[in-house]
């Protein structure tokens, strides 16, 4: 924060561009109580780990809800995405109960994330010198789809059957490499790690589930962005943006705007919203910094009115009236009600 403020005041063009064109949210410390305790104890004997714990005794690293397992269970039952969403996965009701073992810091951060449709987030912690990217939890072997393609033996994540890639695995891995390669010593793993052996195969990055499996645990201008509106130019909130070939959708914010981080390439993108006809177009992402503008205009659909008519008819098919055949009193009454 000090760096951004000072460089902005000094006229640094890179920082000024970042501040004026990006909505930034900064949290100095998620757990100030634990940080103070670890600071007083010192780090010589590994006491930095004390910073995980709040004054109430919660380990914030293990305190967030496990939404990955809920998604995988729904995938096993073939409920995704028609009955179970692949985005904005609902938090289990038992987790939201007032008497649930959830730290006040965890509740505050979850409410904050629910209010703001973040494009990208990262957190910094002491203890090791590497970039860890999702998933942070491993999928149980019994739930791993049998049809999953086997990995090559020399692949970076090797052929560990418990590991499960996110639908955005490629962009997450690229983000991790971009950060690690710009660090002065993160990719020079021959210099040694902070506390343990090198878990990154000399790359400075690792998938979280391979490093420390946990349940619940500046390239935002590359990809596509835009606004979804109706034919009168009014924004459509909560519309779904679907990228072909990527099984993870995003939603528009209250102003109809959306952002989607993607690697360079050509994508078939569709926008869908309740009460509107979907719209599909091809959007290209280039290697130059700067997201591609990809706006959608949706026309209203008649399906809402059709559902109302079907509901009035008991969700039964509407009987076709044959010309020349007299209508029964019951048919005449139903027709009058529909009209």
Distance between the termini: 64 Å
CATH topology of the largest domain: Aminopeptidase
Give me the CATH superfamily of the largest domain: Zn peptidases
Q: Outline the biggest β-sheet.
A: 4 strands, mixed
Question: What proportion strand?
Answer: 5-15%
How many DSSP helices?
Answer: 10
Shape: elongated
Overall mean pLDDT stands at 79
Which second-level CATH architecture of the largest domain applies?
3-Layer(aba) Sandwich
| Domain unit count | 2
What order do the helices and strands follow?
Answer: HHHHHHEHEHEEEEEEEEHH
CATH top level of the largest domain is: Alpha Beta
Strand count: 10
Domain Peptidase M14: 1-287
Organism: Lophotis ruficrista
Family: Belongs to the peptidase M14 family.
Pfam family, one: Peptidase_M14
Summarize the structure.
The chain is of the alpha/beta class and about 350 residues long.
Q: What do these coordinates show?
A:
It is a single chain. By secondary structure, the chain is α/β, with parallel strands linked by helices. The chain has two domains: 18-139 and 166-210, 3-Layer(aba) Sandwich (Aminopeptidase); 223-303, Sandwich (Immunoglobulin-like). 27% of the residues lie in helices and 13% in strands. The chain contains ten helices and ten strands. The strands form three sheets. Strands 3, 6, 9 and 10 form a four-stranded mixed beta sheet that branches. The chain has a four-stranded antiparallel beta sheet with strand order 5-4-7-8, with no helix packed on it. Strands 1-2 form a two-stranded parallel sheet. The longest helix is centred in the middle third of the chain and has 14 residues, at 169-182.
